[in-house]
Amino acid sequence: MASLIGQGVLIVSGGVVRLTGSGLGCPTWPKCTAESLTNTPAMGIHGLIEFGNRTLTFLLAAVALAMLVMLWNLRKERKDLFWLAFGLLASIPAQAVIGGITVLSGLNPYVVSLHFLVSAALVVVSMLLVNRTYGRTGMSAPRDAVRPSKVVRWLSIAAAVCTYLAVILGTLVTGAGPHSGDSSSPRIELDGYLVTRIHATPVYVLVAVSLILLVLLWRRGDILRHAAILLVLGVLAQGAIGYWQYFNGVPAVLVGLHMLGSSFMLAVGTNVMDLALRRGKYSVGSRGAEGAHTAPIPHG
């Protein structure tokens, strides 16, 4: 849970760096200045914000390392947990290096986008880790859970893919937008209206898919229905914030909220797909491993 929440906080923290013009608050890397590892009072608020964002990376690495240490004796029995935790720990230093390249490149918008997308991927990994740690999916999932229909499974995949596409395309909107992180930073030379419409396309599909999923899952009354409810609420709220910021000149506060919403959507989109695909082995009325007809299992 600390990894999942922390990765979301890191995304918002990176947004604060960009939205306050603090992207070059620490003008070099890995030190904050050529002489100092940390920010100095002379660097003001921008140096403090940028260094705070860097420090958060080390805290997340410590959490991932602690998780890996705790799982060491279970690395053979719970390979799913161990390798997800290992992936988190291995990716965090890579994320720090990309952050350094971002600074050294003068906040090149393509590198900034890559920096964000690695954080987005770590939210996805963290969500998978949480589900498996709490026995919601994977090796420790309830054996008597009813597997959803094939239609629901495919729709859950579509929901997750649309979520990921919307986030990826959103980096183009950001790269072409006004909040560069520093007044001297370059921008992506794309038509803002066009990339915004492209970004919105998978969101329209996601809205439709999410509503259909909720209707199909409503009678289940279990954790998968709850996941669909979160997905619908998340996409509606995120879409509302997106339109609000677009028609109000992209104010920094709304952009920050939209980034928080992106983190939430990555988590709930991954969650609904994971629960649909990795929870329950047999559908109602299917045959068990020995070929015996399994009785319908009540929902819940």
In short:
With about 300 residues, this protein is mainly α. About 65% of the residues lie in helices and about 0% in strands.
Oligomer: single chain
Helix content: 55-70%
Structural class: mainly alpha
User: Cα distance, first to last residue?
Assistant: 24 Å
Total helical elements: 8
Query: How much of the residues is beta strand, in percent?
Result: under 5%
Shape: flat
Q: Mind telling me the C-alpha Rg?
A: 21 Å
Q: What is the H-and-E element order?
A: HHHHHHHH
Number of strands: 0
Could you report the average pLDDT, rounded to the nearest whole number? 88
Low-confidence segments, given as residue ranges, are 284-300
Largest sheet: none
Overview of the structural elements:
By secondary structure, the chain is mainly α. Helix content is 67%, strand content 0%. The chain contains eight helices and no strands. The protein has helices at residues 2-19, 44-71, 79-104, 109-133, 150-176, 192-217, 223-246, 252-278. 39% of the residues are buried. The model is unreliable at 284-300 (pLDDT under 50).
